[in-house]
Specification:
The longest helix has 23 residues, at about 190-210. The chain has helices spanning about 15-25, 45-55, 120, 190-210; strands at about 5-10, 30-35, 40-45, 65-70, 70-80, 90-95, 100-110, 125-130, 130-140, 145-150, 160, 170, 180-185. The protein has a six-stranded mixed beta barrel. Strands 10-7-9-12 form a four-stranded mixed sheet, with no helix packed on it. A three-stranded antiparallel sheet has the order 8-13-11, with no helix packed on it. It is built from four helices and 13 strands. With about 210 residues, the protein is of the alpha+beta class.
């Protein structure tokens, strides 16, 4: 399951573009907390601490205990606005959640046993179609990753969501098809070698028939 982390915040008394710019100049990032039938609250976060969590991975499927001036709210990040040139975080949206709240999150795919994969050992290449899978689950049961085992994948295989054992209560949001997560593709060089070998076999058969 996704971990619960702690993030400190302060209430913002002023809102608007001017106030947001002043907040950023002070080394903090404007943010808002909403949901759970409560009024939205404008807050600010320490820039360095926020970037640390953003760079650690899994930010959007991590539940945070957000400490706002001494009061704690359990939240899930929903959106981060980045500067179009510098990629510096400029604003964050957080959704209040409870343990029984159902949320929709994208969970990263983790590929297991690549070194033992028959298709890869034969010269195939792992072609990742989806690096993450959107799922619906309880806020307190968000998986840290979707684990796909490659131990039996052969050249040309397509690996679908049905090959994944999801935790109880975790369901993909796409339910109308068995969608592909990855394939084991034959590289063009290997394919050319196979085609050349097949052509040689055909030529040998033709020679035998002629004789």
């Amino acid at each position: 399951m996704a971990e619960t982390a702690v993030l400190a915040a302060s209430v913002r008394s002023r809102t608007g573009k001017g106030a947001a710019r002043a907040t950023r100049r002070a080394g903090r990032v404007p943010a808002v907390v909403y949901g759970n039938d409560q009024s939205p609250v404008s807050i600010s976060l320490e820039d360095r601490e926020l970037r640390r969590h953003l760079n650690s991975g899994g930010f959007f499927n991590t539940v945070f205990d957000l400490s706002i001036d001494g009061e704690t709210s359990r939240v899930l990040p929903r959106d981060v606005q980045l500067h179009p040139v510098t990629d510096v975080p400029e604003h964050v949206d957080f959704l209040r959640v409870g343990g029984s709240s159902t949320v929709t999150v994208e969970v990263p795919v983790e590929f297991l046993n690549e070194e033992d994969c028959p298709g890869l050992r034969a010269g195939g290449v792992l072609n990742v179609v989806r690096y993450g899978v959107e799922v619906s689950c309880r806020a307190d049961a968000i998986p840290a990753s979707i684990r796909l085992d490659l131990a039996r994948a052969e050249l040309g295989d397509s690996l679908h969501i049905s090959a994944v054992t999801l935790p109880d209560g975790v369901t993909p949001t796409i339910t109308d098809r068995d969608f592909t997560i990855a394939t084991i593709v034959v590289p063009s060089a290997v394919a050319s070698e196979h085609e050349a070998a097949e052509d040689e076999d055909e030529d040998e058969e033709e020679v035998e028939v002629t004789e």
